[in-house]
Write a structure and sequence with these properties.
Blueprint (H helix, E strand, L loop, with lengths): L1 H11 L14 E2 L4 H26 L3 H12 L4 H4 L1 H5 L4 H26 L3 H24 E2 L2
Parallel strand pairs: 1-2
Length: 148
């Protein structure tokens, strides 16, 4: 499990732009100020949820990680995040990536549940792949779009 966390942390830096990068080629998505703050708050909560999931996994608490994933990132979290209101301002590609993130989080729940029934290294790897499927959506969106 530790090696999986180490690999996640080590590869997460590969998606960052160099500090000296001047031109930002991401598409600007214009949002009313209130919606912009709402979206930023959602993204901060998404990051905190991922951190909480990693903490739960590090403690061997797969059920807790699953609960966090579904409640704060999964398909059942959409109404709480105001997705219907924010979606009106998003380009189709951004909406697709966002929907993909929420679907990936709900798939994580299923995969993690299966891992509890069939513990072992192969199941752990599936859990970490499912977690990576969530973070790749975060990276895809942040690499393609900006709101400021």
């Amino acid at each position: 499990m530790f090696m999986g966390l180490l690999a996640l942390v080590a590869t997460s830096g590969l998606y960052l732009q160099p500090a000296g990068a001047v031109e930002d080629g991401r598409q600007l998505v214009r949002l009313p100020p209130m919606m912009q703050e709402h979206m930023l708050g959602n993204m901060r909560d998404h990051l905190a949820a991922l951190d909480d999931m990693l903490g739960a996994l590090a403690e061997g608490k797969i059920s807790k990680a699953s609960e966090i994933a579904e409640k704060r990132l999964g398909m059942s979290s959409l109404s709480e995040h105001g997705a219907a209101h924010l979606g009106k301002f998003m380009p189709e590609g951004m909406k697709a990536i966002g929907a993909g993130l929420h679907h990936a989080a709900s798939r994580f729940v299923i995969i993690a549940g299966n891992a509890e029934l069939d513990p072992g290294l192969a199941s752990q790897r599936k859990v970490y792949r499912a977690l990576q499927a969530i973070t790749e959506k975060c990276n895809a969106c942040h690499q393609s779009y900006r709101i400021r």
